[in-house]
Amino acid sequence: MALYLDFEEKLKNIQDSILSAKLRNDLPAVEILHSELTKEVQKVFSSLTPYQKLQLARHSDRPYAMDYIRLIMNNSHELHGDRHFGDDKSIVGFIGYIGEHKFMVIGEQKGRGTKNKIMRNFGMPHPEGYRKALRLSKMAEKFNIPVLYLVDTPGAYPGLGAEERNQSEAIARNLLELSRLKVPTIAVVIGEGGSGGALAVGVADRLAMMRYSVFSVISPEGCAAILWNDPAMVETATQALKITAEDLLELKLIDDIIEEPMIGAHREREATAEILKNYVVEKYKELSSISINELLENRYTKLISMGSFEDSFDAKLHDIAIATSSQQKEEIEIIKITGEEESL
Fold first, then answer.
1. Could you tell me the pTM of the whole model?
2. Does residue 344 belong to any structural domain of this protein?
3. Considering its fold, how many domains does the chain have in total?
4. For 93-103, how does the pLDDT look when each residue is reduced to its tens digit (9 = 90+)?
């Protein structure tokens, strides 16, 4: 049974009416209702707030990494383990073909249903998950295979075991190693990109986001708790954090926005997968035409140019110098006047 969010309630009512009309075999009513549904979709999804996009990014029916892998890959084979500790099920890795091109696809998998979610640790990787991703990336480099990363996680797992096995080192190591990988790399945020857990598999030549995905340094709930200690401020936090695809493209932190059906990937999985596949193939053709040295140079330039700041220190020094100079002049004049009065 499809899950509808609060702002999709009218869509649910129309869909129910369409189903009822089909059961009655009332074809004219079905046609009218479909037209009404199209208008309502346009009305609702053309003016989504950042918080509503966050809800869509977390939608339980939204395609996960394994869904996309099944839809866009052929002749694929799953690879397991980090060769140090174990096989983290929240990170999946497949080698196979996307179109005519061989790819290594590495994704973060949340899981559906209680049993599966627990097995996948709700999409929150342990250190061995990131080391598994790095091992597969280095394997792809060895055999000159491009890599596609599918990012979808609330964040890296913060538990005691993860800390004991050095979670922060595993993430930092990935940031370093993926930045100098000698094959074309593409990363796509397909749902929720949470903090370092997303960054650890998000360093690539092209970083894109699906239209209704989010990418954030902290969850809006965590931000609201820290700043206001009030869960009711989560929508305000979502707005302030600038976590939507449009915000991040404007800030030049991502390269592209991948369009998805207006009604959302959770309603049209196959169509969304085809859009993703076409994007990956197109970007790979662009990247494969560039030499490895130029690819690495472009990646380095892109990474160090991220973010911006305003350097007002020199301006402040100038203002201080002028103020000091004016004050000194006043003091000299006072000394002169005082001196002349004393001589009289």
1. 0.86
2. no
3. 2
4. 999 999 999 99
